[in-house]
Amino acid sequence: MTKPQLVYTHRDWTEDASLENGNYYNRCCQCQQHFVGHKRRIICKTCSTQAKREWDALTPEQQTVQMEANVQRMAEFFRNR
Known about the structure:
The chain is mostly helical. Helix content is 41%, strand content 10%. The chain has a two-stranded antiparallel sheet.
């Protein structure tokens, strides 16, 4: 009996396929679409690529402001636990 072949989409992390845990069906935390990738991935390749593109378009100063805002949100989250 042969193993069925996966049909990959633009959301899938095909580079994870050779890993032991690389062919899990996941749901993206951004777009809520299903994708195939490592079992620990939480974002599809499409959303990850878009986020990286947007981050790279920011100036270093804008990146710093964004990181500081993220730190504040995380601190608030854990303070309220």
